[in-house]
Specification:
The complex is a heterodimer of chains A (335) and B (352). Chain A is globular, with a radius of gyration of 19 Å. Chain A has no helices and 30 strands. With 335 residues, chain A is mainly β. Chain A starts with 8 loop residues before the first strand and ends with a strand. Chain A has a 7-stranded antiparallel sheet, with no helix packed on it. Chain A has a 6-stranded antiparallel sheet with strand order 14-15-16-17-18-19, with no helix packed on it. Chain A has a 5-stranded mixed sheet with strand order 1-27-26-25-24, with no helix packed on it. With 352 residues, chain B is an alpha/beta fold. Chain B has 2 domains: 5-201, Rossmann fold (3-Layer(aba) Sandwich), CATH 3.40.50; 220-348, CobW-like, C-terminal domain (Hypothetical Protein Yjia, Chain: A,domain 2), CATH 3.30.1220. In chain B, helix 5 crosses helix 6. The longest helix of chain B is centred in the C-terminal third of the chain and has 15 residues, at 270-284. The relative contact order of chain B is 0.13. The chains are: A mainly beta (335), B alpha/beta (352). Chains A and B meet through strand 6 and strand 16 of A and helix 2 of B. Bound molecules: zinc ion.
Chain lengths: 335, 352
């Protein structure tokens, strides 16, 4: 086989892959143990010594997952919100009274958990109470703000900011259309949503000023903040689209950086936790690392049979976990 | 690429018999395993974790146009179902009796994840033979469902006389010249006539040809496409269920909804055509429920096929024109208050 990107260095031989036996829909780390979220029922734990452990968590499809606070939170079509620790049994955090699908989950600072089902969002407060908020539509995305037990919820015709511990009324941020994902900048100044159209929408939270980020080929299904919190890397194009958020106005009036162009769409992105590097997974199975300063590329995985569907870094940024729609789970050792 | 999962959309005004058909599909042995998206739990007699309740969230797109809508809940549900894709081989979406089928159909063209993993197979409408004529007068939803259909089950035929039946069939034909009509009692129709129709498949857009059969039957009988001929023969084996309009049926004109067919032997200029059709759907898209076409472009050895729902168009080069095949362009529109003369003139101006 000829090398597809002759200018790029390859570290393909540094990956260990295994067959997960089901589509992989998410990846996380607990310390140095990679956790692959399977499309149905189970989590697959793979530790540093390559020991595998499969843990049955849901009775059906796993619809959403989030990592944090040394545990993995998942939501399923069985109506359950589960928390699974590295060596423990899965624990049900909540079960929807009507057994509705748990569409989205999020983990906040100090381990706060939020989820959505039907046209409602829920949070579990620190003293173990569940609080609910009615929404104008089903939630498209959930993201905690870095401070203050505050949840951003993307939905039809805008987003809602909710102080889940307070009695104050939720704050509505209006923008026409369907908002399907939410990301809050690490400094808490910006909320970005991915729309049904191939665009992003953003609000500067201090004054509600709108930001539109357009030019994508497809709906943006993945967003990731850079290590310094000053950039938002996004999928949805044949390149990694990296929006600058360092100025007062965020990306307004600025062009994004475009990195690692390929003939297939980027389906998923994950920023390195320490360095100015973005990992991107493409529809054809290719995985690249791109340096955000000079655009240098490294090949982590050659194209395969199916789209890359999950990427996650360990906290040190030495291991990249990846998963594909056809059930390939991999660990690339980049130390 | 893995095979896309086919999706059948089941519509029908309240009380027409949609649930009867759904229960038949779910209970009869046919070797398929379905995931079913229903609008109301409890109506169907099957308890399965592959039966999902939908909210019918119709979302407008950000362009502010009333016809550019998708079913937001469907995007979410299909994404969830596809995580279990080994467990079923087809999906059925049941809509409420008052639903417009367009947002469902548009979801498959607008959302790239839905379009990548699944394909719209056909819109199947169940209609009540006794009440449809009345509903067409007082319920715009019922008319939409007839206009949009690829397959129509004219159900409860035992409750009407043969005159009444001919009358209601004529009313249907006045709106939608191209759907296959099956006369049924308790939705008794071979399921192969309802499922796996490929009505939205660009490779099968020949399905519009029954329209031309009506206006020019001889040509069709001596036609060129063997697949299509076999298809016709097959249909008649089921006993006159599919009847061309004009063969003894009364002719009606619906006041506002109608079908329009255009054809020409003159090769088309592709630039002119694309500019015209895009302009047409941009301005008149809200009125055009569906469009389909087979096109012969000047100096182009391949047939170009396209289809549209309101403002959303999908088209492709399909295959080479055969040496013995008449190079002819054909277009069909189904819509409300279609600007007929404007469309005719516009199409004429696309000649190369
Ligand atoms: Zn429109």
């Amino acid at each position: 086989m000829t090398q597809i990107r002759p200018q790029a260095r390859s570290v393909v031989e540094r990956s260990r892959v295994l067959a997960a036996g089901a589509a992989i829909v998410g990846a996380h780390f607990i310390a140095d143990t990679a956790v692959f979220v399977l499309g149905e029922e189970a989590l697959l734990f793979v530790d540093k010594e390559a020991r595998e452990r499969r843990v049955a968590v849901h009775a059906g499809a796993i619809l959403a997952s989030a990592g944090g606070d040394a545990r993995i939170i998942t939501g399923g079509d069985d109506g359950a919100v589960m928390a699974t620790e590295n060596d423990g049994k899965p624990v049900a955090i909540a079960t929807d009274a009507k057994r509705r699908w748990i569409d989205r989950v999020a983990v906040g600072p100090d381990g706060a958990v939020a989820w959505s089902a039907g046209k409602q969002a829920f949070v579990l407060t620190r003293n173990g109470q569940t609080r609910a908020l009615d929404l104008p539509s089903a939630a498209g995305g959930l993201a905690f703000l870095p401070k203050g037990f505050r949840l951003a919820i993307a939905h039809y015709n805008g987003a809602t900011l909710w102080f889940a511990n307070a009695q104050s009324a939720p704050q509505m941020l209006d923008w026409k259309g369907s908002h399907l994902d939410a990301a809050v900048s690490p400094d808490g100044r910006f909320l970005v949503t991915a729309m049904q159209e191939p665009t992003l929408h953003g609000w500067r939270l201090e004054d509600g000023k709108h930001m539109r980020m357009a030019g994508y080929a497809a709906r943006v299904r993945a967003m990731s903040w850079t290590a310094d919190g000053k950039g938002l890397a996004t999928a949805g194009s044949t390149q990694i689209i990296l929006w600058p958020f360092h100025g007062k106005d965020g990306p307004m009036g600025k062009a994004p950086k475009m990195l690692a162009e390929h003939e297939h769409l980027v389906g998923i992105v994950a920023c390195h936790p320490r360095q100015p590097v973005v990992a991107a997974g493409y529809r054809d199975g290719l995985i690249l690392l791109a340096h955000t300063d000079d655009g240098t590329e490294i090949i982590v995985r050659n194209p395969g049979e199916a789209p890359v569907s999950a990427l996650a870094w360990n906290a040190a940024g030495t291991v990249l976990a990846f998963g594909t729609e056809d059930g390939v789970a991999g660990l690339a050792d980049l130390a | 690429m893995p095979e896309k999962i086919p999706v059948t959309v089941l519509t029908g005004y309240l009380g027409a018999g949609k649930t009867t058909l759904l229960n038949r599909i779910l209970s009869e042995p046919h070797g398929h395993k379905f995931a079913v998206i229903v609008n109301e739990f409890g109506e169907i007699g099957v308890d399965s974790d592959l039966v999902v309740n939908a909210d019918e969230e119709v979302f407008e797109m950000n362009n502010g146009c009333v016809c550019c809508t998708v079913r937001g809940d469907l995007i979410r549900i299909i994404d969830g179902l596809m995580r279990r894709k080994g467990k079923f081989d087809a999906i059925i979406v049941e809509t409420t009796g008052l639903a417009d089928p367009a947002p469902v159909a548009q979801t498959f063209f607008v959302d790239d994840n839905v379009g990548r993993l699944t394909k719209l197979d056909a819109v199947v409408t169940v209609a009540d033979a006794k009440w449809l004529a009345l509903r067409l007068k007082d319920a715009p939803e019922a008319k939409n469902q007839i206009a949009f259909a690829d397959v129509i089950l004219l159900n409860k035929t035992d409750l009407v006389s043969s005159d009444e039946l001919a009358e209601v069939e004529g009313r249907i034909r006045a709106i939608n010249h191209y759907a296959r009509i099956h006369r049924t009692q308790r939705c008794a129709v071979p399921l192969g006539e309802v499922l796996a129709r490929n009505a939205f498949d660009l490779d099968r857009i020949l399905e519009i040809e029954p329209a031309f059969l009506d206006s020019n039957a001889h040509e069709h009988v001596h036609g060129h496409d063997h697949d299509e001929l076999r298809h016709q023969g097959h249909d008649h084996a089921h006993g006159e269920q599919h009847r061309p309009a004009g063969a003894g049926l009364k002719h009606y004109h619906d006041e506002d909804m109608r079908s329009l067919a255009l054809r020409t032997n003159n090769p088309l200029d592709p630039d002119k055509f694309f500019r015209w059709i895009q302009n047409l759907v941009a301005t008149d898209g809200p009125q055009i429920l569906r469009s389909k076409g087979i096109l012969s472009f000047k100096d182009d050895p391949d047939r170009f096929v396209f289809q549209g729902v309101h403002m959303i168009l999908d088209g492709n080069h399909q295959r080479a024109w055969q040496p013995d095949e008449k190079r002819e362009s054909r277009l069909v529109f189904i819509g409300r208050e279609l600007p007929v003369e404007k469309i005719r003139e516009g199409f004429q101006s696309c000649h190369a």
